Amino acid sequence: MAGTEVYDCEADAGRSTLAMMSIVQIVAARKAHPFGDHRTVDQAFPGSLTAESTDPFLMCDDFDMPSSGVVDDPDTFPVNWHPHRGQDVVSYLKSGVGRHGDSLGNRETYATPGMQWMSAGSGVEHAEGGGTPEGLLQDGFQIWVNVPSEKKMEDPRYGTVPPEALPLLAVGQNGTARVLAGRYADTIGPFESVADIQMIDFELGPHGTMTHSVPDGMDNCIVYVYKGGGWVNHNEVANGSKLVVLFDARSSNARSFTLTAGSAGLMALLFAGRRLDEPIAWHGPIVMNTKEEIRQTFADIRSG
Question: Which of 140, 145, 225 is nearest to 191 (CA)?
Fold first, then answer.
């Protein structure tokens, strides 16, 4: 983190007395092929956990791929054009150069660590990639978050987030945090999700430790340890095992968890949110509440 400014954060001051949440399930991320070709990702969910158990979060794909090079044509992308409806979509990149296009007319590139987010609403087509020089790694996450039924057909929205809008906050001992969504201390994440969520990227140096308390009212909590290893509460996470930890966040008294890094450090994404508790009808990039709404969406796509 040389050359990167780190800001002090006392987010959990006065809340450290809250009890630790119990762990419901610990599973490993699974390999997935979301592009239908040789490209592979580590899928934290739904590969290893059901959409009902991760509500309101739908998907987290963890990728680390060498770039095939910069694309000059503003309408050509390695991840080709495809539609979305009914969910929020986030691309959070840790390295490389992000590049995005959509049917709203946006054509953006952004430095990393940075992200682009899109609330698909009633429907939008988009495409990604082609911003990173050939041979360099582009590593990051594609995250989908569900949207309440009454807001699925709202107008689409889009945002690009440069590194300066994702400041590093000092947390615990030898730890930092980047707030992607929701409030954490005095920082509000730039991803404007429809659902009530908190998303934070925690990084702990060797033997670092921290405790985090999930905001009141959020009744689901997932931690994905995507790099390094150590302990989540008192449960060991082997180095490089890419484990997904589902907590019981329903209690008003047990709201906390602890991360402790081993000698290689630890990096983890937090997904906390308020469950929607609605039916989920999901087909490819379309997420609605009923099969009939899915059929209507594809009819709308065919009719243009």
Answer: 145
